[in-house]
Amino acid sequence: MKPYNNKAWWLVLPVFVLVAFSAIIPMMTVVNYSVQDIFDPSTRYFVGTEWYREILADPRLHDSLLRQFIYSFCVLAIEVPLGIVVALSMPRRGLGVPFSLILLSLPLLVPWNVVGTIWQIIGREDIGLYGWILNSLGLDYNYASNPRDAWITVLVMDVWHWTSLVALLCYSGLRSIPDVYYQAARIDRASHWAVFRFIQLPKLKNVLLIAVMLRFMDSFMIYTEPFVLTGGGPGTATTFLSQTLTQMALGQFDLGRAAAFSLIYFLIILLVTWVFYTAMTHNDNKE
Amino acid sequence: MGWMAWTLPTALFFAGIALLLVAMTVWQTVSPGRERKGFLPLTTSRGDRLFIGLLASAYGHLLVLALTDWPLWVATAICATGMAIIMKWG
What we know:
A: mainly alpha, MetI-like fold, B: mainly alpha, DUF2160_TM (chain B), transmembrane (chain B), Small integral membrane protein (chain B), transmembrane helix (chain B)
């Protein structure tokens, strides 16, 4: 007896071909680069795992990796709770629904480099609203010279740009909860907190996992916004992994080292994504 | 294919991965496996265990390169043993 009908796998073939050309073949090329010292396309020397040893001992990688993890952690710690609060405060019916949905979608429509430029202007103490207000309050704010201010501005910019995504995902999760749950809660005279804790939060679990996964991946490979806003500075205060990688690959044209760096970067993202994916499918199986 | 900057070791590596995937497909077709629970803290299929084993091997190699002066074949031998353990009892 044949336990599975595997013919459906043919339907996956177009996607596989697409992914092969957009991801697998370029990735194989990166692996090939990572074991060679490349001067130009015809002059390259096999160096084995030398680049990996060097990159793994490189303090620049350690520093940007630490900054990247702190940044992604802060982004998640702010955007996820804030997104839930925004979703809970959104109207459930009436004209307010389309209005708030459009309002929340607006930041998501702004391209990354434009977001960086907007915040570059908003953060200025002479003509920018945000910088001017903070300085008027007596705070010595300058994102171009103070690492703490640069960090706060980069984080606020990300929160402004992406909290909407978490809020919209949570809102769709909240809308899919059947009304009978709320009716049962009303009969039991459950408090707002109890409704949130025992009805809404468990029902939001899968949506939240997707939100956390998307926001982690996006924040972990962030490049354009901090590059436009601070250029990675002051010093290297806001130089994250992707910028260090770009400097290495395009600035110094050190393709072998950059390829080894890329693969380590990829392995980190792959591990974290797999953990989230496993957690998600594990939840689905339990349900 | 010149633009892909192939070397013999990387070609052998990818050929090995491709053969592994073909062998797993044939194995699954000839004798279908079921999801089960081993020493890993989750229910896994053969494919899951292969992925976990490959990912763990990648990290194992990086750890050896970062923390020791051992030659690479030592890391490969340790990871191959780990991979076999995960496939059998994971």
